[in-house]
Amino acid sequence: MPVFKTPFNGYSVKFSPFYESRLAVGTAQNFGILGNGRVHILDLPPTPSSPFVEVASFDTADGVYDVAWSESHDSLLVAALADGSLKIYDLSLPPTSNPIRSLQEHSREVQSVDYNPVRRDSFVSSSWDDSIKLWTLDRPASIRSFQEHAYCVYAAVWNPRHADVFASASGDCTLRVWDVREPGSTMVVAAHEFEILSCDWNKYDDCVIATASVDKSVRVWDIRTYRTPLAVLNGHGYAARKVKFSPHNRSFLVSCSYDMTVCAWDYMVEDARIGQYGHHTEFAVGLDMSVLVEGLIASTGWDELVYVWQYGTDPRAP
Amino acid sequence: MATPPNPTDGNPPTPATQPTQPTNQDQQDSKVEAPSQTSPTSVFVNSEPMREEQVQNAVKFLSHPKVRGSPVIYRRSFLEKKGLTKEEIDEAFKRVPDPPPSATNVNQDAQVKPSSSSQPQAVVQTLQPAAAAPPGTISSMRSRFHWSHAVFAIGLLAVSGAGTAVLIKKSIVPRLKTWIRKVVLEEEDDIVKKIDSKPSLAEEAAAAAKAAAAAAADVAKASQEMLNSKNEERRRFEEFTNLLDVQVREMKSMTNAIRKLEGQSNTQGRASFVDQEDHGIAISNSKQMYVNNKVDYDLRSVRSSSPPTSAEPSVAPHPKSYMDIMAMIQRGERPPNIRDINDQPPNPNQQPSNPRLAPRAKPWELSQAHNSSQPLQSQVSSEGLNSKVQDNGVTYQLNGDSSVPWWQQKNVKITEIENGDELKAGIYGQRFSEPPVQPPVQRSWVPPQPPPVAMPEAAEAIRRPKPAVQREQLVDDQSVTNPSDVTDELLRVTKISESGGAMEVNGGSLVLNSSVEINGGSSVLNSSEIQEDHSYEQSVHST
Fold first, then answer.
1. In whole angstroms, what is the distance from residue B274 CA to residue B272 CA?
2. Does residue B501 come out as left (phi exceeding 0), alpha (psi in the -120 to 50 range) or beta?
3. Smaller CB count within 10 Å for chain A: N or C?
4. Residue B510: pLDDT above 60?
């Protein structure tokens, strides 16, 4: 399986929704505490034993905490930076023309950015300044700002079936469901006793959402019965950093954690954890599953390595 | 930060979305399961009634004096963490009773708002209708206290008066009597004493002289004795000091001998017995131990070893270089490897390049059978990639279906796993077999809005591969018994499209959308194919 060594500590990895073999990696220097950042665009090699092909890379003044591919343009991607800005890059243009936009509105680090997969024209960014902002590519300023959380908003994710609905996970221990047509959040779920670091919607059941928290558990909720979770997935040794539902299977999800592992779960069976990968040697922080290739997983971590492997195979196999 | 976001903050959603909103509302109202709410997105709204117990607990919390002083956003956040819904929290804020003397505006506003349920307001209105509400409440409260206070004070005074009267009777009156008797007796004694004292003066003088002489002699003797004793003491003291010196010398010689014998340098401690230095050393030792313990505590707090199965979050051990950088930053230093990078856009008005590929349908937007999507996807992807292969400069061996890239060889592996491993059948079992237990109601999803088709030619190209055989099987299996079911409509529509012979997966969902727009009933089955195609074209042009 191919491995890529980034010069900085890895923070986020995302597969392209247009090209099966393409992925973007966001990295930050000095563990993201203070330093520059870099966005890498990689292509999967023709054979698994070859290294990745780096198609492009962009240097940034501050660390890159997240990247998101556009759903409407195959060559556009958005990067979320630690200085509160969002940068938009166009791979079809020469590197000297990039970035094409810098959106500076957040007053603190932007932790996540997500592109709308239904409308394909807008994206949300969530920040440590407790707010979430809604943007489109054609406007220089945000369309809306959602300010209700009492602490850092670590993730904001669009619902895969409802064009105007998204969910946010925050350090104030709540998960909120929003509708861009409504003035405020439509649901508040007290999901964990500790900070919630990530959330993701089930692609096949539009009311099911998973949350990953500092309390080491991943919980799966049905927001229609939001008082108790559908499943509590324990198995990580430290905080669960990111969770992702499979785009191809309704009960399959993966999560990565500060215990340096990536775990695969089936939340509908008794013994939920069905896979564990300990390939990272530092915090595993970035995780994605390909929408185009079933079972393809990518992960990155503070050990400055990017792995891509099929579920069921060994990421470190040559 | 405490203010809720204003809808007027930014521009309303883009015009392209507005015509689709009414259709969304129609479709979502049809799937309301809870009692109908005012908002159209019924599934994503809390539909529970307000829980009175929770509201009362929240009111108690908000009435606490310490809570009153905290910012509103933290109070809301606390209640949200406890699991209260927005409505319950708003109700609790409304019900918080009296404004504090240093009241926040929120509480006063809640007070002034017409809420006839709270009693204090009614009292205020009856007592002082002319005054403003808050000072009225305060003064009325004071007047009530005043009356009860007066009654209480009068009672106290009465009791104390009675008590003092009793005391006076019992104690003071007898004292007065005894004092009067004393005075009378003293007067009598004085008169007697004066008569007796005069004749004996001379005798007394002579006696006094004798006594004085004797005393002088005694004093002289005593002083001499004292001098003698002092001398003796001095002598004894000198002897004692001499003895002590002798002893000290002996001890010193002994220690020297011991030092020579042992040859150690640590005997300072012992020698310092006399010097009183050990006290200082003991203090410094104890200080060092304290410091060490503190350092140990710090290390432990970072690298804690709590068991992983506990729900308590334990701080994960950070890499050593992470701690180094944190320490550097806390000292105010800047890590040396940071460069000054200008990442501003060179042209902020740069137009993004035109997309070369049409957006691809997501796997969850396809029809129910996932296994049918798999080969379809590979065909679509191979076509898409082929168009880009030359541009990328990386060549792949994609010749239709025969050679699949290595990252997609999972198809082979799935069947192997499925045959062998029972554990993993849980996932893939659902893929390859009809989901037996799930009722069709769960399948009723709102179809997504048709993505903007930027390149109709590409959309046509994607549509060309024929749908797989399995889809026909599915359609045959499902019975047409529930005409209002959205899923069945989809199947009927796909059947129509298949017989038409030129519909693609994405197109299937579009057709459904348009069919619902038209009539949402079962008459779709009877409408002609031509009409379906026309409606598809219309919906494409409208987006």
1. 5
2. left
3. C
4. no
**Among the listed residues B60, B70, B135, B144, the one whose alpha carbon sits nearest the alpha carbon of residue B106:** B70
pLDDT in tens, A31-42: 999 999 999 999
Quick one: closest CA in A to B88, which residue?
A188
- B405: DSSP letter: -
Contact A86, A45 (CB under 8 A): no
Q: Is B293 helix (H, G, I), strand (E, B) or coil?
A: helix
Residues of A in contact with B309 (CB under 8 A): 234
Q: Which residues of B433-446 are buried (b: 16+ CB within 10 A; e: fewer)?
A: eeeeeeeeeebebb
| 3-class SS shares of chain A: helix, strand, coil, % to 5 | 5, 50, 45
Are B408 and A293 inside 8 Å of each other by CB?
yes
For residue B13, which residues of chain A lie inside 8 Å, CB to CB? Answer: 143, 164, 180-181
Nearest to A162 among B343, B364, B446 (CB): B446
A44 and A21 Cβ atoms separated by less than 8 Å: yes
Q: Which of B80, B89, B487 to mutate against chain A (most A CBs within 10 Å)?
A: B80
A35: amino acid identity, one letter:
G
ipTM: 0.87
- Per-domain boundaries in chain A: 3-310
Partner-chain contact A143 B11, CB within 8 Å:
yes
Beta strands in A205-295 (DSSP E): 208-213, 218-222, 231-233, 240-245, 252-257, 262-266, 273-277, 284-289
Pairing of strands A144-147, A101-104: unpaired
Q: What is the pLDDT of residues A50-107, one digit of tens each?
A: 899 999 999 999 999 999 999 999 999 999 999 999 999 999 999 999 899 999 999 9
Facing residue for A190 by CB, picked from B34, B82, B417: B82
Tell me which architecture the domain covering A3-310 has in CATH. Answer: 7 Propeller (2.130)
